[in-house]
Write a structure and sequence with these properties.
mainly beta; globular
Length: about 475
Amino acid sequence: MFSIKSNDGGLNAEIPWGNATVSTRWNHLFTDKLFLNTTLVYSTYDFSFGAKLDNFELKLLSGITDWNAKTNLTWIPNTEHTVKTGFDYIRHKFRPGTFSAKIGAVNISPNDVAEQFAHEFAAYISDEWKPSERFSVQAGLRATAFMQVGPFKRYLKNEFDINTDTIVYGEGDNIVTYKHLEPRLAARFILNEKSSIKASFTQNYQYIHLASISSGSMPTDLWVPSSELVKPQFGVQYAAGYFYNFADNTYETSVELYYKQYENQIEYKDGVTPGDNIGDNTDNAFVFGSGESYGAEFFIKKGSGRFTGWIGYTWSKTERTFPDINFGKTFPAKYDSRHDLSIVLNYDFTKRLNASVVFVYSTGNALTLPIGRYLVEGSIISEYGARNGYRMPAYHRADLSATYLLKKGKFFESNLNFSVYNVYNRKNPYFIFFETEGTIQDGDLKTTAKQISLFPILPSISWNFKF
């Protein structure tokens, strides 16, 4: 958890979040051609965002708890085929978003915590076929199912968006079921000892959605499940790449192109906030549309010698189109990042001492900001610009580290690591909020946009050891 306190007494925020997981795994070798692994996993994710600004306070809670059992069987009948099959089951418990607020002396809070429950199933089979040393193809099919179950309350609305009735589902009652097939195909052809080409086709359904509020950059993204109103996300991806090694395989390079199509995407309706689900269903706040993403990835790596490292750069574009928002015009997704660059460089001074430099850069997130404010009957009304029409400043930083090997034996190894995170103290944006000063009555009302940044320059020393 971390907290933010403005020096001028403005915004105070607390943002605790975290994951916890416990897993156990059993592996069994039937023969040298047939083996099985089974895994049981419990995981939970909790997120909270609490903020206080002037006389307004809000708190948002969200989370997911999963119980997961999966088994995978691998069979290698001969040198040409590797067959994999398996089954996966997850029991989900979602807390899509519980909101409470306080405006002066007025408290706004729900009567109970909104929870949703679901079962998710998947079974798959795939075969990697290598008819020759130069050519291989992998084909697979995955069958999935998702069931939303009770307990649950469905609030029914009329054409004026007013609640008119409620359907109550008991524990374990089936609310809605989705079933789909997901084919996939990938092929690789080795042109010569230095180069190869790859191509793939994948079709996926995803039953969990990320809902983002674009009218501000507060970290209030929520994970919500598919339901009667929220259909499963559907995506089709096409990819192709060229790979080339040179200088006796000292350097590896690649260029990959991809294109993705998305259906059943979700966004919050204009003017909706997480607090609007009090006495309502979370999914009543959404509108639905489609999207597409495409880009090119470039990669070079040096994997041998005293000096090693890699450089990766991705140019991409992700857009969405929703008939009910932004006047039906296409707009960039919140996490659309046009440029993404990563550089990792390592140098071994001796067998005991090595140093590394890391640099990352990415285009800032897109968000929707107000372009004007009006006074209507004593209240301030904001007018927003184009959906996700503003870009936050770019994210970039450099890290330095050096590691000295203290001892290395057959059963014990230890080293000292000296590092500096964000070495030039870049104030990368985390979110933007608006602070208002003055009053309407005095005619000195002023609204200022302010940026919250995290993690300045952070030097550290650590002692690592392993048995």
